[in-house]
Amino acid sequence: MSRENEAFAGDQPASFAAQKRVAVFSDDDNIPPALTRAAAVSSMTLRHHPLDLLLRQADGPSADILWVILDRDMGHDTLDLIERHADFQATPLVLQLGNDAVDAAWATFSERDHTVLTMDPDVGACTLALAQASQANQPHFANAIDDHRVHQIDRLQEEVQRISAMLSHLAMGDGSTAAYAREGSHEPASPFIEDHVRAPARGFGSQPPHATVSAREVRRIIRERRMRDELFPADLFADPAWDMLLDLYAAKLDRARVSVSSLCIAAAVPATTALRWIKTLSETGIFRREADQHDGRRIFVALSDQATDAMHRYFARRAEV
Asked: Is the pTM of this model over 0.90?
């Protein structure tokens, strides 16, 4: 769809005046079909602009949401200009990233408020990104056409956060409170967590935990998990948090460093889903950011000390079974 076929609400009849405006910036003249469909579902209007316009004008086209498509690493200066433009406009930002752009973008934007990162999104992922960006300045985002679908996606996001909170307790505590979402709460962290998770952890004495398994053994487990995907539908066993924990643990044992793009591959789920998991697990303290001393645009992901200790304990207990 060319820019001539797109219009903002100001160009529409009065009945559409309340529609949110999304300014789409990219190197080509086309808006991705998935975004076009998602905007229609979400009752939003799109207008395309060349990416250069965003980089040249800090006070350029205004909109309710900025959607910027970066298919390649544009460099730190370009990312800084995009961030300044979004700050100047006080506008939520969605970055649609190609594989070559994700590492630099993550380093700049992963901790920025009102920013959504997505990779190769389908209609559902575009709808979710628009909803998340819209919620940044309108807490009660409503979708008249597909409100039920957005509600389901929001429930999924909440479940991800609840599971991540449970993992955080496992990593940082002694296991006795692992099953509960809040301190002193009797609400289960997740309907999928069974009673055996609530059992107090066995003590390991005062000695700090240490590795009882090699990186080679951990990677063998990872290969076994991928073998299942060759025989059964991959989403049947989708468990991105554990896949990423295993990958980062193997890297820790190998004293290797893991980039965001590499960790997305290890998650064995769609890249946008992997990014959401990385962000959530970073916010809960299970993952931590490590700057690349040789390249300020690059961020590595590693296990926190508490998560590393938890993985040590897991494999120690596994050896006892």
From this structure: no
